[in-house]
Amino acid sequence: MGDSRQRARDVRVLIGLGILFAFLLAASWERWTLPIIDHGREMNLPARIAAGDALYLDVQFLYGPFAPWFNAALYRVFGVRLGVLHAAGAVCAVLIILLIYRIARCLMGPYEAGAAAGLVLVLCALRSTANYISPYAYASLYGLLFALGSLASAVRYWDTGRIAWIALAGAAAGLSLISKWELALAALTAGAAAVALRGLEDKAFRWRDAIGFAFPAAAITVVAFGFAASRASWKTLVEENHILFSSMPPQLVYFNQQISGIGEWPHSFWYTLSGVGMLFVWAGILTMLGALPRAKSGEGGRLLRLGLRMAVAGGGAWVILRWTFGVPADATILTGMPVVLPLFVVLLAVQVYQSARSGEGIGFQRGALLMTALFAQASILRVILKVKTTGPYTPFFIPVLLVVCVWLLVVLLPAAAAVSNPELRRNVRRAATIVLAVFVAGSAISSSVRFRRHNTFEVRTDRGGFLTDPQIGEPLAAAIAYVRSNTSETDAVLSLPQATTINFLAGRRHPFREEIVHPGFLTDEEGIRRLEADPPELILVVNLLTPEFRDRAFGADYNVKLMRWIDQRYRRTARFDSEASRGAQLGDAPFFILVYEPVAKQR
Q: How far is the C-alpha of 259 from the C-alpha of 283, rounded, in Å?
């Protein structure tokens, strides 16, 4: 009877998540694409591969080969249209939410797991600042999906001991490795932990299971990169495509330091500590809410005072760090996890080891929690001192971390705050779950409003379209129309430094290997050599600032000599602005597009 009630609750929660997903999808319809930055590469690169270009050789790519090969295959089957990628993104979003619910359900009840999956839905899958439908990199989307599949399979192996599950975890980890290797690191960590836990429980290491996990992961990786290396040399893969973060330009090193927060040390550390303060604030508030129904009783009053002390201590720490070190005010519970999570993992690992050695047994939930926490820890290594809930990269690092945070608030907090009073424990747990559900609903409404308020300008061609911010959409649509009117389908159009959205939607060839000319990626001499050897019919230069790479603007701070060569050999024939960009120059903040044609053509 209990199992049937649990299944009924699972069904209700999944239906609720489905309704929320459908609501957000409808509210954000065709507003998912941020058309510049990396999105032009995501549209255009698979189209180039589908047309015959070789990945890594004819087209530069910084990640594993799975995403461009898979998206090129989708184009071949369903046509070269943006909607094909969006459909793939939507399917992945659904699968990711289901996997998160499955993983969280191993640790918590249906409603608490639903709250965790709901947080991933509103903070990652369909958020106005980033989403899974049109991600900055489909390599990250597919890498996350496979990594989560690996974690879910490893947890299932821990539960059943069947080698088939750990082999499936290894295969999924291999697919994640050939998508985006830093996401696969989390899957490999969790899979290794599963094998170690099973050996600890059985008091004998399972070599067969370890090989069953490692072999498919290694085989998939070797076969995929071996095939890629058969068309482009290993030197090309490593030195020109930086797939192992090797031979990186200084600007890319700077970018990674900014993303991780290491480049801002020790300021980023104080920011992370302020997140620990926010964890105590939330814990205190939830404890007080749980105590309110019995505030007049002795136990309830004690719990109320405990919650108040936690909230005051956390808030005080946050204020002191803000005033003393000037850290940003946007710290959340997640921000403090680089400090909290390692301590939690160590304490949990010690507890697991002691339980196994004593003969007590590890227990399914305890082992699954350790694997999940290790996965979360490995996931945030790339952003170790800068964990946020916003930004294009966040949705791919924090989903499992959100599961761990929910567990801390709805399981650990009630157990620690009300050790001897089951009723108060239930009250705190219920309060935490309700507050999280309210937060999910509020975030869904907020994202819907932002989607519809800011993304109002339509950009559309026969290859698909989207709604975006008018300050980007107006010049972009005008540039696409100009390219289509002034070039033929066989002409080359060079978009610099990162606007091949124009090439994709206009159906024009991009002549450079680099879909995105990041600072430091293309020398002036090499760019000039290519232009002299094969002059494009048009050159489009977009003003888009990249301070995260240290050098802010193409033509003003980097590739200045290349821009000077373009000005001398080509003539500017058009400029496309929004109301906000009129009169702006290269290096200023507003977005605009300059169009250049060869002098010989004009004559």
A: 28
Q: Which amino acid is at 496?
A: L
Q: 195 near 217, Cβ under 8 Å?
A: no
Nearest to 503 by CA among 42, 24, 22: 42
Any idea what the Cα angle at residue 536 is, between residues 135 and 75, rounded to 5°? 35
CA 373 from chain center: how many Å?
Answer: 18
Q: List, in order, residues 6 or more apart from 325 with CB less than 8 Å away.
A: 267, 270, 271
The total of other beta-carbon atoms located within 10 Å of residue 561's CB is 14
In the block, tokens 């002795």 appear at 298
Cβ atoms of 486 and 538 within 8 Å: the answer is yes
Q: What is the pLDDT of residue 600?
A: 67
Q: Is the four-CA dihedral 200, 202, 204, 206 of positive or negative sign? A: negative
How many CB atoms are located within 10 Å of the residue 351 CB? 13
Q: What is the pLDDT of residues 147-176, one digit of tens each?
A: 999 999 999 999 999 999 999 999 999 999
- The CA radius of gyration of the chain, in Å to the nearest whole number, is 26
319-325 average pLDDT score: 96
Residues in the chain: 603
Bridge-based pairing state of the strands 464-468 and 493-496: unpaired
DSSP annotation of 390 reads -
User: In this model, does residue 603 exceed pLDDT 70?
Assistant: no
| Span 19-47, pLDDT tens digits | 999 999 999 999 999 888 789 999 999 99
Dihedral of alpha carbons 380, 384, 388, 392, sign:
negative
Q: Give the CA distances from residue 549 to residues 35, 41, 259, 500, 553, in Å, rounded to whole numbers and listed in that order.
A: 19, 18, 10, 19, 10
What the block records as the tokens of 293 is 């129904």
pLDDT in the model for residue 283: 97
How many angstroms separate the CA atoms of 387 and 336, rounded? 8
Long-range pairs for 340-344: beta carbons < 8 A, 24 or more residues apart: 340/276, 340/279, 340/408, 341/373, 341/376, 341/377, 341/380, 341/401, 341/404, 342/377, 344/373, 344/404, 344/408
What the block records as the tokens of 239 is: 């030195």
- Compute CA distances 184 → 158, 174, 197, 531, whole Å: 19, 8, 20, 39
pLDDT value of position 349: 96
Could you give the CA distance from residue 169 to residue 154 in angstroms, rounded to a whole number?
A: 6
| Domain limits, the chain | 262-386, 469-602
Closest-CA residue to 316 (of 356, 266, 280): 280
In sequence order, what are the beta bridge partners of 459? 466
CB atoms within 10 A of CB 52: 7
C-alpha of 39 from chain center: 14
Section 254-265 average pLDDT: 92
